[in-house]
Design goal:
Elements: H1 16-35, H2 53-76, H3 100-119, E1 129-132, E2 135-138, H4 140-166
Antiparallel strand pairs: 1-2
Helix pairs in contact: 1-3, 1-4, 2-3, 2-4
Length: 169
């Protein structure tokens, strides 16, 4: 059983319906977490090797966008070989000049695209296999990975935002 990218809940243990529900909450949850951070602190890091909250959110946007593009291919072309999907981690400073509104809009668009396509997919299609990151995965991995990776970064954003608040005291 594959574990999540952070060693948390195994991706395969998340059902497709639960993943869809979680993806539907991402726009609101990311907006709440990120708008709680003062704009001048979005790119702030406590350690140069640690991604900022904006770096993490932009990474989620990019990952969800890649997965939204991949899902139709995975479902419509079983056995397809795709480039790496989510093997990387957020990079410190990668999003320093990025607009928060664009990041939040991107998360909304991509999460909605994945959830909408997933809701239209027949159950038997979720077992279709494809290849990425040097491994074979079932199609369900796309929504499961989107959910676990997004949720992990959201937790990191909330934790980092709390540390930024602690620094103000």
């Amino acid at each position: 059983m594959a574990s999540s990218p952070t060693g948390g809940i195994p991706e395969a243990s998340i059902s497709v319906p639960d993943a869809i529900l979680a993806l539907r909450t991402f726009p609101r949850r990311f907006r709440e977490a990120l708008t709680a951070v003062p704009a001048d602190r979005l790119a702030t890091v406590s350690d140069p090797a640690t991604p900022s909250v904006l770096d993490r959110a932009a990474w989620v946007r990019d990952l969800l966008t890649d997965l939204a593009r991949a899902l139709p291919r995975v479902l419509d072309d079983p056995g397809v070989q795709l480039p790496d999907l989510g093997a990387s981690e957020p990079r410190p400073g990668a999003a320093a000049a990025t607009d928060l509104g664009e990041v939040l809009d991107g998360i909304t668009t991509a999460a909605d695209a994945i959830a909408s396509r997933a809701e239209l997919t027949p159950w038997e299609a979720w077992d279709r296999q494809f290849f990425t990151d040097g491994a074979e995965h079932p199609a369900s991995w796309v929504v499961q990975h989107a959910t676990t990776a997004g949720a992990q970064q959201l937790r990191e954003i909330e934790r980092a935002a709390g540390e930024l608040d602690d620094g103000d005291e």
